[in-house]
Write a structure and sequence with these properties.
The protein has helices at 3-53, 59-78, 151-187, 189-200, 216-266, 270-299, 315-332, 355-370, 423-433, and strands spanning 92-98, 101-105, 120-126, 129-137, 143-150, 311-314, 336-340, 348-351, 376-383, 387-393, 437-442, 448-455. By secondary structure, the protein is of the alpha+beta class. The protein folds into 3 domains: 3-167, 2-Layer Sandwich (Beta-Lactamase), CATH 3.30.450; 216-299, Helix Hairpins (Orthogonal Bundle), CATH 1.10.287.130; 311-455, Histidine kinase-like ATPase, C-terminal domain (Heat Shock Protein 90). The strands form 3 sheets. Strands 2-1-5-4-3 form a 5-stranded antiparallel β-sheet. A 5-stranded mixed β-sheet has the order 7-9-10-12-11, covered by helices on one side. Strands 6-8 form a two-stranded antiparallel sheet. It is rod-shaped and about 160 Å long.
């Protein structure tokens, strides 16, 4: 359902209910005012009759006047309706009584008294009709004037007045609906233009929306859409760069693997075949490590990462288990792995599952790869109230200070024996997620020192 229809329906509903309530209230007030008006009219007619009766005339002239008045009223009752003064004229009636004797009555008045109540207003039922009666005692005489009006006439007049009051509103409601339809459509035209522009855009176009001028409410929506498009565009740029870099990095290892496989197939000497298969196996291991690092880097991408779910962990235990996994590589290269830590210290921290293992695998793995055979790789841990510190020293060639910022970039290699150039990029991204820090320095005994500081508790990024 469109916004225009929903808004129009709601407006018409509110307007209709308001009109109904206002109409009912107006009807009640109008009915009350009409009743007051007709009551005043009854009293006025009674006063006029009283004035005629009290006129200073001889009795025979007064009787002649009353007879003439009665004759006129009778003619009005019996005349052609086209000549009548008003169609409600015959429904207005009066009686003139002297004691129990009826002296004069209108043609529409019954012969029986309207009421026997004292002077004033009264409601009575006479001759099958309900009447509103005003009774007036003529001063200094025994005569009584009764002027009455049928209630059905009043009800008819009241309904007519109320209907005529509400009729313009009822007739104007369709016109108002059309005007509201046009007004709402005009007000929502900028939103329609925005929707139409978005609908016609090429799915591959991620340029910002240009919609000017815009109402203040739509500027917020347009700004949010443009920010979203910018994030998507940046994400696509990173994805394309990542795919291009990954394809470039995998092309050479795969070509080497294919070459070793061909050598193994072509070798006739079992020793040559065994050597080619060993090289093939080493190449598969390097390719596996490269793919693993690529997947880890993709998982840690700022635009793809999920909120950090830290869990309580023991840094000393995590580091010790990760070094155990690296012990075969250290034994193969005849390198001694040393771990220095205070067993009694508090090594608890909040960290993402698997993060410490990834850090050690990359940092200690790089140290083992760059250290000479027979060397030493030392891992030290230090604890403070707010953070834990991890220090790894190797005996390799180290990294010149001018190149230390570059080695943190993706696919940057520090030397001929380096891997894919992803390890330190992965470590840096992990530390960013945990609000940690990474520092590269010269090791005291030569080589490279890597210092990592991790806060005990993390904050959401």
């Amino acid at each position: 359902m469109s916004i225009r229809r929903r808004t129009l329906g709601l407006v018409l509903l509110v307007f209709g209910v308001s009109m109904l309530v206002i109409g009912l209230v107006s009807y009640r007030f109008a009915a009350n005012e009409i009743e007051e008006l007709y009551d005043a009219n009854l009293a006025q007619n009674a006063r006029l009759l009283e004035g005629l009766i009290q006129a200073s005339l001889p009795d025979d002239e007064r009787d002649a006047l009353l007879a003439s008045l009665e004759s006129a009223l009778l003619r009005a009752e019996q005349s052609d309706k086209r000549l009548a003064g008003h169609r409600y004229e015959s429904k207005l009636a009066f009686q003139l009584w002297e004691g129990d004797q009826l002296l004069l009555r209108s043609a529409s008045a019954p012969p029986a008294p309207f009421t026997d109540r004292p002077p004033g207003y009264a409601n009575s039922q006479v001759a099958g009709h309900d009447w509103r009666v005003y009774v007036l005692d003529v001063a200094e005489s025994s005569r009584r004037v009764m002027v009455a009006e049928r209630d059905d006439v009043r009800g008819e007049l009241t309904r007519a007045v109320a209907l005529r009051t509400l009729l313009p509103d009822l007739l104007g409601l369709p016109v108002l609906a059309l005007l509201l339809w046009w007004a709402i459509g005009w007000g929502l035209r900028p939103l329609s233009r925005m929707a139409e522009q978005i609908r016609r855009r090429d799915p591959h176009t991620l340029q910002p929306l240009i919609l000017q001028p815009l109402p203040r409410e739509l500027e917020t929506i347009a700004g949010a859409l443009n920010r979203l498009l910018e994030r998507i565009r940046a994400l696509r740029v990173r994805e394309k760069r990542f795919i291009a870099d990954a394809a470039h990095e995998l092309r050479t290892p795969l070509a080497v693997l294919d070459l070793h496989a061909q050598n193994a197939l072509a070798a006739e000497d079992p020793a040559d075949r065994h050597e080619a298969l060993d090289k093939l196996r080493d190449g598969v291991a390097r390719s596996t490590r490269l793919v693993t690092q690529l997947l880890a880097l993709a998982r840690l991408d700022p635009e793809e990462e999920s909120p950090l779910a830290g869990q309580s962990a023991d840094l000393l235990v995590e580091v010790r288990e990760a070094l155990v996994k690296l012990s075969p590589l250290a034994a193969e290269r005849d390198i001694e792995l040393q771990l220095e830590a205070d067993e009694a210290a508090d090594w608890g921290l909040s960290v993402e599952p698997g993060a410490i293992d990834t850090l050690i695998q990359n940092l200690a793995g790089n140290a083992l790869q760059h250290s000479p055979e027979g060397g030493t790789v030392s891992v030290g841990l230090a604890a403070s109230n707010d953070a834990l510190t991890l220090v790894i020293d190797d005996q390799g060639p180290g990294i010149p200070p001018a190149q230390r910022a570059q080695v943190l970039e993706r696919f940057h290699r520090a030397g001929p024996s380096a891997g894919a150039g992803l390890g330190l990029s992965i470590v840096e991204r992990l530390l960013q997620r945990h609000r940690g820090s990474l520092q590269l320095d010269d090791a005291p005994g030569g080589g490279l020192r890597v210092t990592v500081e991790l806060p005990r508790t993390h904050r959401e990024t």
